[in-house]
Amino acid sequence: MMMPVVDPVVREKQLQQELLLIQQQQQIQKQLLIAEFQKQHENLTRQHQAQLQEHIKLQQELLAIKQQQELLEKEQKLEQQRQEQEVERHRREQQLPALRGKDRGRERAVASTEVKQKLQEFLLSKSATKDTPTNGKNHSVSRHPKLWY
């Protein structure tokens, strides 16, 4: 079994053709890989954009809910303050007649004290006029039990 002898020039040409064929196949594979890479890159970019949009949407919804909750809390606080003011106003309205009554009672007490003082002055002056001798008789001894002894 002998190997046929090939002319080196023919062999060189044959090797160059094989090399060229391999290079062409590599170039085609490279282009296919680049195309696949670009396709996957575009898909990932679209997915990323969709995720970003979803994230932005969720953040906006969360912000809207937070603002709505803050507004609701403000409204509840204002309503509570309004109710407290209403209760306080009602309490004052309830106390006002009682306070007015107390003031009137004090006024009556002051007037009553004045009346008592005038009455006492009147009685003392009346008593003083009775204690003075009338018709030359002194009845003051009979009126004061301490003086009986």
From TrEMBL:
<keyword id="KW-0156">Chromatin regulator</keyword>
<keyword id="KW-0539">Nucleus</keyword>
<feature type="compositionally biased region" description="Basic residues">
    <location>
        <begin position="140"/>
        <end position="149"/>
    </location>
</feature>
<keyword id="KW-0678">Repressor</keyword>
<feature type="domain" description="Histone deacetylase glutamine rich N-terminal">
    <location>
        <begin position="6"/>
        <end position="96"/>
    </location>
</feature>
<dbReference type="Pfam" id="PF12203">
    <property type="entry name" value="HDAC4_Gln"/>
</dbReference>
<protein>
    <recommendedName>
        <fullName>histone deacetylase</fullName>
        <ecNumber>3.5.1.98</ecNumber>
    </recommendedName>
</protein>
<feature type="region of interest" description="Disordered">
    <location>
        <begin position="75"/>
        <end position="149"/>
    </location>
</feature>
<dbReference type="InterPro" id="IPR024643">
    <property type="entry name" value="Hist_deacetylase_Gln_rich_N"/>
</dbReference>
<comment type="similarity">
    <text>Belongs to the histone deacetylase family. HD type 2 subfamily.</text>
</comment>
<feature type="compositionally biased region" description="Basic and acidic residues">
    <location>
        <begin position="75"/>
        <end position="119"/>
    </location>
</feature>
<dbReference type="GO" id="GO:0141221">
    <property type="term" value="F:histone deacetylase activity, hydrolytic mechanism"/>
</dbReference>
<dbReference type="GO" id="GO:0005634">
    <property type="term" value="C:nucleus"/>
</dbReference>
<keyword id="KW-0805">Transcription regulation</keyword>
<keyword id="KW-0378">Hydrolase</keyword>
<feature type="compositionally biased region" description="Polar residues">
    <location>
        <begin position="126"/>
        <end position="139"/>
    </location>
</feature>
<keyword id="KW-0804">Transcription</keyword>
